Amino acid sequence: QALEARETELVGQAEQTAQQKLKTLATQRGGFELQLGHLRSCQDFVEESQRTCSQGEILRMKSPLVKQVIDLTGSFRPETLALAEQADMVFAHSLPGLVKTCQQFGKVYCHPVYPEKCRASGEGIKVATRGQKVAVSVEALDKEGEAYLQPVDSLRCELVASDGNNRVRGTVKRRNQNIYDISYRPLVTGENQLHILIEEHPMLKSPFTVTVLPNFTAPTNIIGDLNAPYGIAVREGGEVVVAELSNHRISIISGNGEKKSFGTLGSGPGQFNSPEGIAIDSKGYILVADYGNHRIQQFSSTGKHLRTVGTQGSGPLQFQSPVSITVHPHTGKVYVAERDNHRIQVLNSDLTYSSSFGRKGSNNGEFNWPYDVATDRDGNVYVADSHNHRIQVLTVDGVYLRQFGKQGEEE
């Protein structure tokens, strides 16, 4: 009975509000029609005078007619055409049929809180760490952007992984009158979508793109030792892949401290002679700059030998002391820093030859023992030009852009 009474009250209020709005709009329309009638009468009089009066009579009537037209048009302002009332309506929760019908034409909010005005803040709408709890704060606001002080009936969040399958529900706790704390614990690294729904409607800027980082804790129980680790790469899931120069092997270390290694000293497939550079490509393959064998080797994610490219020399697909290797984030091409050839050699993603740039020297775009190569998010190439004591920045094609650094010890 109380619910029926409340429904009757809400319907009565809505009808009363609607009637008042219709009355105001009808008055406004009447004023528009009266003004339009005056304009039409003036127009008809001018047109009739032009047809029936002589030129002299028209000239005598010119001044009063012009004044009348100016008075009429001067009283008209375009902004008066704006509706005097906005067609806001309030629907009771117990009218699902009416709400469903209205949703075919737009959005219907059955609650004073306004999802598209509500705001979210906190680290958790941008970045998180796999397995670690992260927090988000939500500010509940009404349609005027003012704090909504009553409890929100429905507020929920869900983190969806990029594959659309892995979903994590967050927990919600009301901190004070209009502030709510949300926490969630992501499970999948990479870009995730954080959906925050208020009264089953997305809030402002939802879904948020959250970058989930691997959770790597430095292991304390590594099985075995490391001997002259020269190259390092971190792959998805937090595993660390290390090139051990003096052990002539590659070691894969998991987040819980387990280590597995592959490779021995030698020049055969899967063997190494002082490996230095290491990288992970888009397929998860391990690429190794096999320094002493003057070649590049490719392995599966588990360490199975896949292919070897390169011989000693200075031509295409020849290497002289390759010390560093990186994969371009946009093209997938492989950049190899050759110390003794004083150049960067570029391979396609299938390890066929693409191009090379650089030669020995100290001018722009020249190198003297380049020892490392990397790329940024824009695709620019950075080279550690060791004996020139500088860092050079080049385009993806090796065109010189700028440099920084000089020999010295100052900070």
TrEMBL record:
GO terms for biological process: proteasome-mediated ubiquitin-dependent protein catabolic process; protein polyubiquitination. Pfam families: Filamin (PF00630), NHL (PF01436). Filamin repeats lie at residues 110-212. Gene3D superfamilies: Immunoglobulins, TolB, C-terminal domain. The keyword Metal-binding applies. One of its GO terms (molecular function) is ubiquitin protein ligase activity. Keywords: Metal-binding, Repeat, Zinc, Zinc-finger. SMART domains: IG_FLMN (SM00557). NHL repeats lie at residues 259-302, 306-350, 354-397. This is E3 ubiquitin-protein ligase TRIM71. It comes from Geodia barretti (Barrett's horny sponge).
